[in-house]
Amino acid sequence: MVRWTASAITRTDPVKHVLHLIGSGHDYYDALRKSILFFEGQRSGKLPPDQRVKWRSDSALHDGSTVGRDLTGGYYDAGDNIKFGFPMAFTTTLLAWSIIDFGRNMGPELKNAVKAVKWVTDYLLKVTSTPDVVYVQDLTWQVKPPLHWRPRPLYFVSRDPAYSRLLLNRAVRVFDFADRHRGAYSGSLHSAVCPFYCDVNGYQDELLWGAVWLHKASRKRKYREYVVQNEVILHAGDTINEFGWDNKHAGINVLISKEVLMGRAGYFESFKQNADDFICSILPGISHPQVQYSPGGLIFKAGGSNMQHVTSLSFLLLAYSSYLSHANKVVPCGETTASPGLLKELAKRQVDYILGDNPLRMSYMVGYGSRYPQRIHHRGSSLPSVQAHPARIRCKEGSRYFLSPDPNPNVHVGAVVGGPNVTDAFPDSRPFFQESEPTTYINAPLVGLLAYFSAHP
User: Is 437 assigned a catalytic role?
Assistant: First the structure.
């Protein structure tokens, strides 16, 4: 194991401290290209002819065969070989949101970003093809028969009108099913998804999240009324500074607030207040028990894989900054005023930290910069490829690769790992999976951030 540590940095003005390394001149477009390329290394199923990540081969080609269906495709969520629907839906939505808000800044990479979304929406259409059924996969070393679960709706605006209508109609059907059968999916699938993806936060936020996106997509009054009528019942004001695959509250509030700031949805005013409160809770120097900053300025929240919080919360900072800017508004936070410019700077500081502006002077994106994690917790990356090792590697035989001090044989370009701890220390070691494992839901919001900063460095 290689462990890098950072000495403590004395903080005076917390806001200035978090911003003190801005302006280092990163190549954000290169990082954007690599962050999208990462998703090709997470693909499951039959790979297309234009596959660019060559060490990833066809895999899981028999998914669904035990129930007579083709359930191939989708993404492996992290360093394993399992397709979890819950985080996959969040990943897809954040990729889509990145394109909706920042696709104009993606240049030639826009087509690759759209491909990254379509790879998984094609899969989601497969697993929702039977009315009132969603197929999922459990966490085992070998592929197991899919199970039925209670779904989380998803919507993506496609540049293909017919495909877009198909997705929207399917999202409506799945949402109706979820609303009729309310409950946490892990209630019936506890042994299959826990402790990795237990729905600890409950199903309520997912229903609001789905309704908000359906309102945005369809502009139908019934979804607006659903959100307003269920705001209290579904706890819209809970845990306002949480946003991730299990807790959508901050994202719900920010997404809806755009309507309020544009002056066309006063009935959503309470959501805007929640969004303002979220902003105030995350500012450096504001005392909040759920949000910390490392000595080097990285957002830190308790639990594993901290970079998922960094990228998701930073995405919301940037999105809300854009909405505020267009409305010529600021967020009052007691004696502090959070301007759109300040929110962008805070988001940029987090991105710069990931790319190398941190006490260890290393990039937490594999393949970006001259110093980055070499021993990430990822099966496909840490095991020799089929081309290099055609013979089968059995489960126990993989231990020598897992425990090896050598760098991974396959460089998973664009993968962003879980990141350093609250002291800015980082163990470049596969067994420390919370720090060294990449996930799709870390990269998805980062795509939007990098797109914006590539055009506005």
Answer: yes
